[in-house]
Amino acid sequence: MLVAVVVLGLKFVAYLMTGSVALYSDALESIINVAAAVAAVIALRVAARPADAGHPYGHTKAEYFSAVAEGVLVVLAAVSIAREAWPALFSPRAVDAPFAGLAVNLGASVINAVWASVLLRRGRALRSPALLADGRHILSDVVTSVGVLIGVVAARLTGLHVLDPLLALLVALNILYSGWHLVRDSVGGLMDAAVEPQTENRIRTLLSEHGQGALEMHDLRTRHAGRVTFVEFHMVVPGDMTVSAAHAICDRLEDALRAEMPEVNVTIHVEPQEQAKHHGVLVL
């Protein structure tokens, strides 16, 4: 939140120094960074709450609401930028004293780039949708800012002042694209989308490698809920196997999955061989 406020202040100073519509659009997008940071803090606090009677699966999905809210705010920012840029497209004006203002804007972009890398690295390590959404949005902001800087310099050097509002419109389109991806990924989490194919393949491999004693596993289902991955499947065992022996296999499989995915919730349905469906992931 502090970084977002500092970057917002620097970008508005750059806009006031230059009068550039493109820099104004860049500063306007930074307001979204502040709002997104606030939303992320609230979502992370809610997601950190332990499971309770009303929410037996925990509160981790709260992070997706933060990412969806950020996507909506991004769309609103794009609309606001387009409203400012469209009239200026037909009556462009010269950018005043750009280079000092551009230097301020460049400093803000460097801060954003460093912070985006921190958020993305921590988001991947913690498997946090809220941090990843914030990091990706800030990274897109950095790309946008670099494009704006290049364009404003080009407008100043060439005298084509229409480049300034034109770049602002391109910023709006880029923000819309970023917002679409944020909303799409977050809605996928809210809709209990399955894990990525490579992750599911790894789960299947672990079940095969650590399922000695079982005959077959099938009906594998997975989903994400924030940083937690839910894994469910049926395990077929010989009909005369004791409950204790079957339970030992389940424990071994759960330990193998948790060794690679610390935040995993495993549910195993044990069925006797004579009632098995005989399809799915075979245990080797």
> Architecture of the largest domain in CATH?
Up-down Bundle
Chain-averaged pLDDT = 83
Strand content: 5-15%
Q: Order of strands across the biggest sheet?
A: 3-2-1-4
Number of helices: 8
Would you report the number of β strands? 4
> Which CATH first-tier class of the largest domain would you pick?
Mainly Alpha
Report the radius of gyration as a whole number of Å.
25 Å
Protein structure class: alpha+beta
Largest sheet entry: 4 strands, mixed
- Low-confidence stretches are none
Helix content: 55-70%
- The topology string of helices and strands comes to HHHHHHHEEHEE
Domain count: 2
The outline comes out as elongated
The CATH homologous superfamily of the largest domain is called Cation efflux protein transmembrane domain
Family: Belongs to the cation diffusion facilitator (CDF) transporter (TC 2.A.4) family.
Domain Cation efflux protein cytoplasmic: 197-272
Keywords: Cell membrane, Membrane, Transmembrane, Transmembrane helix, Transport
GO molecular function: cadmium ion transmembrane transporter activity; ferrous iron transmembrane transporter activity; zinc efflux antiporter activity
